[in-house]
Fold this protein.
Amino acid sequence: MTFVGSFQSEWLKRRRSLASWLVLIGAFFTPSIILASRIKNHAALPPLYVSEDFWRRLWSQSWESMEVFLLPIGIILATGLIAQIEYKNNTWKQLHTTPQGFTTIFLAKLLVVLLMLVEVFVLFNVGVYLSAVIPAALFGGVPYPTAPIPFADFWAGNVNFFIDCLPIVALQYLLSLHFKNFLVPVGAGFAIWFLGVGLLSWEYSYVFPYNHGAINFLTATGHFAGRKLPASVELLALVYFAAFTVAGWVLYVTKREKG
Amino acid sequence: MAGTLNQRPDCCVETVNLTHKFSEAETALNLVNLQVMEGSIYGFLGPNGAGKTTTLKLILGLLRKQHGEIYVFGKTFENNRVETLRRIGSMIESPSIYGHLTATENLQILQKVYRCPKGRIDEVLGLVGLARTGRKKASQFSLGMKQRLGLALALLHSPSLLILDEPTNGLDPNGILEIRGLLQELNKHRGVTILISSHLLSEIEKLVTHVGIINHGHLMFQGTLAELLSRRRQSSFVVFKTNDDAKAERIVRGMGLNPRVERGGVEVPALEREQVAGINRTLVRDGIEVYQIGRVENDLEEIFFDVIAE
């Protein structure tokens, strides 16, 4: 019961915050660009819309920028902004004098970040669907896609991509709670992500916690054919997530000054 | 886990030899033994940087305790943190307010945690005079309004103990009077114990029942307001204005007192009324003309400065 109240309280704080706007912008960014491009080039769409692999091509096109660039950047910024709500408003001291255990506060905030990520995934999938059907609704010559949506594959892909994001969430959460200055977690996050992107061609790049999404996507699209990967990149991501979460919790609970 | 019981059962807050260092060179608090009686309004006074906020933060668990003991509601704080905080309302330094939210939304955040009735939100907003702020974001509030909202946040769950760090900062004189009235009402009619810090005695002398004065991390005085007022009487002077102050000073000294020639007369510390009459009689008998006899009392602010200068 205490945790439910704590979570509801944390969830309220994101109302009208920059982080909640970032969720909307991040989720609809790529689908909007794809939609705009399709509206501009609608004359070339009819053969594409009757092709058998219509949904898979749209899926790959949509996730390419999302998985490699937008999701890591969005997570780095949104997680930092969630912690900044307390720093910017000087409210840590108020929060820490409420009758809640430090672990409860830590987990309630983490759950908010994770649910915002779920929100991004749901809205992004809605955006992908809309980017497919809106041109068909707008232009008479463009048919509705005839190929069936491969729900099972898309669901599995979403789950894997979500798990791949978890190490980024946990490490950014650790950094954002620990450093008052917003630029520290964001700067560190970008530096780690840049380094990871630079190392993508390295055969052991999967050891880098921010690379799992990109590796997963590039493997699924055949770019990493022949590369040796661990049995499950997702399992590795979950191990990183657990390790960073525990480290973040220890740092948070043992912080000397709490407001 | 009940925790160790404190030494004074009538104390709502008690610290025993509370010591805190921010570094080896900087001792913020040194063996502070604070005793806030149940049902009192305790004014915690001291100049800026004296250790007031550090003490309050330690009591609320915002700083990790290094040395000494803290008892709140008779139990050690660290073993009963959540249970204790449920009964405390606080406002430390500037009010903690989410600027992107309205006053009602700010209170909703705490209402979810305390699980108090939703009706309390309008009740406390009315109590602090913020009932009509509507959809205005808290970031657009004046400093005084923010201070009132901070107070509403502290009062939301009807706490038994209020810990307020300089709550009248930024309020206009009328606002100060209103807040003072509200705190007195809470104390008198709802039995709320209040620990309030300030660097100005004049600001809280009409409010408090007990006073603690801290300076450089040392608790210099602790007692009732009446005890502090008696210090004022003890540090008062009677001034005799005569035609020959030097001779009058010798005569008074001969009576076993400790006079000095100052303020255009002979100044004699802390005299009872009968002693004043006796000195007057002696001076007149010895041929000295006494033009004026007057009592000079230090105001409380001077006592405060005397205490912190000790």
Observations:
- The mean pLDDT of chain B is 89.
- The radius of gyration of chain B is 25 Å.
- Chain B touches chain A at residues 57, 60-64, 82-83, 85-86, 88, 90, 92-94, 96-101, 105, 108-110, 112-115, 153 (CB under 8 Å).
- The CA atoms of residues 14 and 71 of chain B lie 5 Å apart.
